[in-house]
Amino acid sequence: MNVTDPQSPDSAPDAAAGNGTDSAEARIAEAESRAEKLREDLLRAAAEMDNVRKRAGREIDAARQYGIERFAAELLPVADSLALGLESTVAADAAALSEGQEATLRLLLKAFERAGLVQVDPAGQQFDPERHEAMAMQPSAEYPAHTVLQVVQRGWLLNGRLLRPARVIVSTAADNSSDPGPPAG
After folding, report:
1. DSSP β-bridge partners for residue 168
2. Helix axes 94-114, 69-87, angle to 10 degrees
3. Which residues contact 138 (CB under 8 A, 6 or more apart)?
4. At the fourth CATH level, which superfamily is domain 116-185?
5. CA neighbor of 135 nearest in space, from 164, 166, 173, 169
6. What percent of the chain has pLDDT over 70?
7. Which runs of consecutive H residues, i.e. helices, occur in the chain?
8. Using CA atoms in the order 74, 80, 82, 84, what is the torsion angle rounded to 10 degrees?
9. How far apart are CA 45 and CA 38, in angstroms?
10. pLDDT tens figures, 3-38
11. Short-list 144, 4, 83, 30, CA closest to 170
């Protein structure tokens, strides 16, 4: 008889093969489940990155549009003072107008200072080509060569960085034959 005994050695490989198939299918199902979870996590991360990009873009636009708001609020009293000064020009005398202009300038400079703007007034200092723009050279027996004799237009720094160089007249030696020329810069 050819009846196979379940305990016979011939049937053992079939049983082991069945267990291996179940195990492989379980591992495949587990791997597919992990892959699906990772795919969902990736999609969530991509959506979050997109939201962060959009939010950052909106914040940059708002900063660009309204970043000057504090500075503008500081300048409103200056504008009010100028308008008041213009209204009173008919009835005011020269001394009162001059006093009003000085007060307005003080308001403006205080607003500039709060915003990080600082004037550069280099009169009497050594010429610095990184902070000054030489408009002319003038012989001087009083000052050494390459000294700022006169400030034509003050310069400005914004939080320590040059916004506009001071325009200046720079000294040369009284005897031009010994002057090496303008400073290199």
Report:
1. 134, 151
2. 180
3. 149, 169, 170, 171, 172
4. Head domain of nucleotide exchange factor GrpE (2.30.22.10)
5. 169
6. 83
7. 12-66, 69-87, 94-114
8. -160
9. 10
10. 455 454 454 444 444 566 789 999 999 999 999 999
11. 144
What average pLDDT does range 152-177 have in this prediction? 89
Q: Please enumerate in sequence order all residues whose Cβ is within 8 A of that of 121, keeping only pairs 6 or more positions apart, or say none.
A: 151, 154, 166
Measured CA to CA, the distance from residue 59 to residue 148 in angstroms comes to 45
Q: Which long-range contacts (CB under 8 A, 24 or more apart) does 65-71 make?
A: 70/115, 71/111, 71/115
For 160, the enclosing helix (H) or strand (E) is none
Residue 148 bridge partners (DSSP)? 170
Residue 71 contacts residue 115 (beta carbons within 8 Å) = yes
Q: Where are the domains of the chain?
A: 116-185
Long-range contacts (CB closer than 8 Å, 24 or more residues apart) made by 176-184: 176/139, 179/145, 180/145, 182/127, 182/134, 182/137, 182/146, 183/127, 183/129, 183/146, 184/129
Strand order through the sheet with 132-140: 132-140, 166-173, 148-153
Task: Determine the distance from the C-alpha atom of residue 109 to the mean position of all C-alpha atoms in its chain, rounded to a whole number.
Answer: 23
